[in-house]
Amino acid sequence: MGNLDGKKKILRIRWNTVCKPKDKGGAGVANLGFKNKTLSAKWIWRFAIEKEALWKKIILAKYGPNVQQWPFKITYQKDMPTIQRDIVENAKDAKMSKWVGSESFCWKIGNGKSTLFWWDIWCGNQPLKLLFLRLFRLAKNKVSTIADSLS
């Protein structure tokens, strides 16, 4: 409470100021929104990198192999579990997509079963959906894998 002209008044402080370290004039409170986005980004990155991790196998077993296409099934967010929905929302954030978006990865093809034909960067330095926009619009299955598209 502050005192202005003999009246008690609640002081308003910007959240950015509260989250600053104490030695820089803040209260040293952690910015939980930023921490949440950071941890979510880490899980997106780990999901793409850790091919044989037990936790990833459990997620794939529970939600099916199309779980790798989470960011592209935005229309069905109401049907998603809360954790999955939060990860998808986080992946759509402009700042976050620079760190862990599909443009941040390039894939080793192998048998083509885990690389998305239109969305992943596997031929050149950007997704084929950007290189061949007209063809992408005509495609019947916009989230097919390379193996599915070439069979």
Describe the structure.
This protein is mainly alpha-helical and 151 residues long. About 3% of the residues have low confidence. The chain has 8 helices and 2 strands; from the N terminus they run ββαααααααα. The protein has 3 domains: 30 residues, no CATH class; 74 residues, no CATH class; 46 residues, no CATH class. It is elongated, with a radius of gyration of 22 Å. 43% of the residues lie in helices and 4% in strands.
How far apart lie the N and C ends? Answer: 70 Å
| Broad structural category | mainly alpha
Q: Flag low-confidence runs.
A: 71-75
Percentage of helical residues? 40-55%
Order of helices and strands: EEHHHHHHHH
**What value does the average pLDDT take?**
75
Report the portion of residues in β strands.
under 5%
Strand line-up of the largest beta sheet: 1-2
Largest sheet: 2 strands, antiparallel
Radius of gyration: 22 Å
Question: Which shape, going by the Cα principal axes?
Answer: elongated
Q: What is the tally of helical segments?
A: 8
> What is the number of beta strands?
2
Number of domains: 3
Give a quick rundown of the structure:
With 151 residues, the chain is mainly alpha-helical. The chain contains 8 helices and 2 strands, in the order E-E-H-H-H-H-H-H-H-H.
